[in-house]
Amino acid sequence: MTTTLQPPVRPASAGRATPHKVLAKAGLYVFLLANAAFVTYLFNAAGVGSNKLVNFGRLAGLYGALAMAFQLLLVARLPWLDRRLGMDKLTSWHRWVGFTIFFTLVGHLVFIALGNAGPDGPVAEVIRQATELEGILRALVAWAIIMVVGIVSARFARRRLAYETWHFIHLYTYVAIFLAFSHQVAVGSTFRKSALATGYWWGLWAFALGSVLIGRVALPAYRNWKHQFRVAAVVPESPNVVSVYIEGRDLDQLGAKAGQFFLWRFLTKDRWWQANPFSLSAAPNGKYLRLTAKALGTGSADIRNVKVGTRVFAEGPYGAFTTMHQTKPNALLVAGGVGVTPVRALLEEIKGHVVVLYRVSDPREAVLLRELEGLARAKGAVLRLVTGSSKSITANGPLLGPENIVALVPDVQDRDVFICGPGGMTDAVITSLDELGVPSNQIHAERFALAN
């Protein structure tokens, strides 16, 4: 006889995020909406002309400028935002804001060109303005850069480009922002109409650029000067996995949490320019930081050859995959592949009763298994290896299907669930949890996406 699992009705609180995430999201929404409202007020206060197409174009340009400033805030990697939303969520926002910039700037150029077009047409009008008016040529260069970045960021193009190539092109966005701002200063009627408008735009850009300089330059530089990171040991875990221990000064003041990751630069002549994101594979203890890397690419493979004593430049800690967002006394940790590293660190730090599901195709691929077993015994946790191919079917259905998850963890609805692993595995687990009615505020996943 076959029984069918009936998913329970989702509780009313299912759509709520944790208080930390709610506060961060609310802060971003309020910032964006309040500034959009004020930009609209300044536009109207500057005087609206009779040419509707030009008016639409001007307003689109102002919204595009605001979106650029907001984009800088998203990529600044400010600790307060990052710890509450996570790099992957901020990167998702970054992507959508990027396309908003793309379309508002298209509208800015097209509407103004059409509105001002003479008998020779809009293209001739754009050329005339570029050659005769100050700041227009800079705006067109900025516009062209944004168009290129937008096109190569589309999924169909992104898949065909090497990450390094895409990243290099993406960095030109900063050049475009500078040129766009200089255009706004030169010809922006709203910018120059009143002292209030001028002060507002200068303040907004100063805040946005200041956030980037603090989060991306000053804070990493200060932390590395203060902590003086060096390689203390390089320990093979398996034929293709290695753990690197990083020592430094006053590591207890770093503020890192289990589940977070750093961008690591090993300062050798052939590696100093390359930053690799690796999670902490052990909870920070004030004595050392540990990362564990699998030889998946050239950068990861070369880490096993790093010498003891090598200076390290570390950016971070980053990520919201921490106990800060735990809402229930007990937890389920789900790890797959190299995603076991932050899960292993979380197991060391997390409170309450814990169940760990470790998904591997073959038990011989279970990295850090002995450490997990030792931690599970010490904490009274339950560790279960979930093995087999992705097509394997158990007596309870697919390995990570809802029936099998609830068979392995009957009280899953009453636990926070932390998931880290390949994208396909993560999506499968989240889908199963959704079918089981696990509230979304209890589901925490890290995908390690980076906003540039």
TrEMBL record:
Top-level taxon in the UniProt lineage: Bacteria
PROSITE patterns: FAD_FR (PS51384)
GO cellular component terms attached to this protein's record: membrane
Main localization of the protein described in the UniProt heading: membrane
Protein name: Predicted ferric reductase
Membrane-spanning residues: 26-44, 56-75, 96-115, 135-157, 169-187, 199-219
Residues of the FAD-binding FR-type domain: 224-324
Pfam families: FAD_binding_8, Ferric_reduct
Locations listed in the record: Membrane
InterPro entries for the chain: FAD-bd_8, FAD-bd_FR_type, Fe3_Rdtase_TM_dom, FNR_nucleotide-bd, MRET, Riboflavin_synthase-like_b-brl
Any one Gene Ontology molecular-function term assigned to this protein's record: flavin adenine dinucleotide binding
Keyword field: 2Fe-2S, FAD, Flavoprotein, Iron, Iron-sulfur, Membrane, Metal-binding, Oxidoreductase, Transmembrane, Transmembrane helix
Membrane topology term: Multi-pass membrane protein
UniProt cofactor(s): FAD
